[in-house]
Design brief:
It comes from Pseudonocardia autotrophica. This is Holliday junction resolvase. By secondary structure, the protein is an alpha+beta fold. Helix content is 33%, strand content 18%. The protein has a 4-stranded mixed sheet.
Length: 153
């Protein structure tokens, strides 16, 4: 029987592996500086963050949050992603929620979520709708390749 602490450790390890897989894939498709972001600065004593969370992948011109969970918590995850939008120095960076698909080892085939407004902006349209749009990660990267956003240093 596993304890809650053991399950927590296993889940963190699973999440870190998914983040490394996404960073490796991004490097392979043209983002040579992509790497798993190791964020420190969490204050356990106060329960508050000393440093803002910039996302799970550093070195790319967009914000990426990576999830590897069997149970989808889309609303919660998208809210967390929206809270990160101004943290990397870009005025309104694209924000991607990448969720590992069961049975798909290749990160290009994992699900990627963004808002309708972001999708419209990337495809030359306009919308203020915040409803989520789902596509494969590779499709989102193709859309992003057509934009001219610089990486903040």
């Amino acid at each position: 029987m596993t304890t809650a602490a053991q399950r927590g450790t296993a889940n963190r390890r699973k999440g870190h592996t998914a983040e490394r897989d996404v960073a490796k894939y991004l490097r392979a498709v043209g983002y040579p500086n992509a790497e798993r972001a190791v964020v420190t600065g969490f204050a356990a004593a106060t329960g508050g963050r000393l440093k803002a969370d910039p996302g799970d992948i550093a070195g790319v011109p967009f914000i990426v949050s990576v999830k590897d969970c069997a149970t989808e918590q889309l609303g919660k995850w998208l809210d967390e992603l929206d809270a990160m939008q101004h943290l990397n120095g870009l005025p309104d960076p694209p924000r991607l929620l990448v969720h590992k698909r069961r049975g798909k080892a290749d990160p290009s085939r994992w699900w990627c979520w963004m808002s309708v407004a972001q999708f419209a902006r990337l495809t030359g349209g306009a919308s203020s709708m915040q409803a989520p749009v789902r596509m494969e990660f590779v499709a989102a990267l193709i859309l992003l390749a057509d934009t001219t956003v610089e990486v903040a240093s």
